[in-house]
Design goal:
The chain has about 300 residues and is mostly helical. It is about 85% helix and about 0% strand. It is built from 14 helices and no strands. The two termini are about 35 Å apart. It is found in: Endomembrane system.
Length: about 300
């Protein structure tokens, strides 16, 4: 198989399995599992597995990271503000809406990052960025209100947690960027999840909630932790290493499509045409930014080759 085709398939599979993670979480919460317990299990088990993978595949980076208090402190900040808060906010958004809607709302994050960077640099977005921002705002408005000004089409809590998950997802993207370049993804994310998995159960006393382990729940746990977190993350990293991070993030936008599909097929959620209109506008906004980055990278590459 061609190397680029292999990388593309791996990233697409990762995006689809992220969709499986969201719907698995929705199924578990709908069938007796408390959100605090689910968040704790997801963080602890995923953190342990990814940390072991870091020790095996990135031993030098892992050893260097755990010997530096400064690095561990930065990973701890990422664990609490990025990983822990994002996972919890995302699951809360799913609980009050559904996996498809929550995932699409979370994908507003790149627009928030763009707005933050523009404000920090004190410069206005260019035309394509401005269009992307307007499309994302319009798409979010349509999902939340179905185009009406007299009330919300989703619950206020669902809307709040959906947007809050986008904010925390922005932290999840921005905070560890430098650490990942220096110490590798498995080390940073694995240790971050492990730290979050230690702190969160203590804060929420999640052990007090019953662990309902029916065969279906066990399958859903496998889907959200192993398939939708460890497997998906590993495939995404390996695929992106082949085709490039920008193209990888572009293809990973299949995740909300996957989430909506599984929401309909598994949980029998009902989406209206106006919902799909809003989702489409947000996806177009995200894809516009990803394509712009892809063209910029190619332009830089061509310029370097000419010189």
């Amino acid at each position: 198989m061609d190397k680029n085709i292999k990388g593309t398939i791996m990233v697409l599979v990762a995006g689809i399995t992220w969709g499986i993670s969201g719907i698995s979480g929705q199924y578990l919460m709908a069938n007796g599992m408390n959100i605090n317990l689910l968040s704790s299990l997801r963080l602890i088990v995923s953190g342990l597995l990814l940390t072991v993978m870091a020790m095996v595949y990135q031993p030098q980076h892992f050893s260097l990271a755990i010997r530096q208090k400064r690095v561990l402190a930065k990973i701890a900040v990422f664990a609490l503000i990025g990983l822990l808060m994002n996972q919890y906010a995302y699951l809360m958004a799913i609980q009050y809406t559904n996996a498809g809607t929550a995932t699409v709302l979370q994908y507003v994050a790149p627009i928030l990052i763009l707005a933050y960077v523009s404000a920090k640099k004190r410069q206005l977005p260019d035309l394509s960025e401005s269009v992307a921002i307007l499309l994302a705002i319009l798409g979010t408005f349509i999902i939340a209100t179905h185009g009406r000004f007299d009330g919300l089409a989703i619950t206020p809590k669902g809307f709040f947690w959906g947007l809050f998950s986008a904010v925390t997802y922005s932290f999840y993207i921005v905070l560890p960027a430098k650490l990942i370049r220096e110490f590798g993804s498995f080390t940073v994310v694995g240790l971050g999840m492990l730290m979050g998995g230690v702190v969160f159960p203590i804060l929420t006393r999640s052990w007090q909630y019953p662990l309902v382990l029916t065969p279906d729940n066990l399958l859903a746990l496998f889907g959200t932790i192993i398939v939708g977190t460890v497997f998906a993350y590993t495939f995404f990293l390996k695929g992106s290493a082949i085709i490039g991070a920008v193209k990888g993030s572009l293809l990973a936008a299949i995740e909300p499509v996957s989430s909506v599909f599984f929401s309909v097929m598994v949980m029998h959620e009902i989406f209206y045409s106006i919902d799909f209109t809003g989702m489409f506008l947000i996806l177009v906004a995200v894809l516009m930014l990803s394509l712009r980055d892809l063209f910029m990278v190619r332009k830089q590459w061509c310029t370097m080759n000419k010189t």
